[in-house]
Amino acid sequence: MRVSGALVAKALDLLEQEIKPGMTTKELDTMAEEFIRDNHAVPSFLNYVPKSDPSVTPYPATLCISINQEVVHGVPSIKRVVKEGDIVSVDCGVYKGGYHGDAARTFVLGVIDEKVQQLVDVTKESLERGIAMAVEGNRLHDISSAIEDYARSFRFSVIENMVGHGIGSELHEDPAVPNYGRKHTGVKLVEGMTLAIEPMIALGRSRRAVSRRNEWVAVTEDGKPSAHFEHTIVVRQGKAEVLTRTFLE
Ligand code: MF3
Ligand code: CO
Question: I need a labelling partner for 46 at 20 to 30 A (CA). Which of 58, 134, 185, 216 fits?
Fold first, then answer.
């Protein structure tokens, strides 16, 4: 999982360096897929079908690229151009050696609204607050409540119907890792548990991300911007090990 995690982080570094106003989300997707395959690995999301609903159309891309009011699962397209002032959440999964890595970052293009910049900064820091709780002896919702408390202290909204997850030989494993909850509750964390922690935080009052029938992308109910950061981590004694970190972020 260290190998898959490092590849995800490098793919996101590449995209962070290359993303520019005027590019299509499809160009970014192609860049990531080529990088992953050049490294003898496979994109985790491509052709993904949720176990809970096998009737869903398989996910058609390497990345999820979700712009502004899009919360998650934006499908890359030749028709979708990123522009100055956008916030662009890029989520990437890699499968190699039998295991997955999964991470996301929200990129800021040029100068953006001050409040939206604060949303991005707070979402990133909320993930760090969650990771800081991912140590043996704590409980699952210690992670969740740390994220929620930090986001709410800025009066931002936690998206409640999308969650992080266990990760390993499957992309999505138990337990679900919500971004809100009561501390000292939930399963006990044990050294070696591997989790994808992924806060999705929005401006405004919306606590749900909604999607149309037969569409992957999920948006805020009120059209306000949303940010998303994710790391794959290992629960350890004392301090969690982050598998998807690099020098760029
Ligand atoms: N990081 C996201 C998740 O864990 C990405 C999943 S995209 C999908 O849910 F296509 F695989 F669903
Ligand atoms: Co994930």
Answer: 134
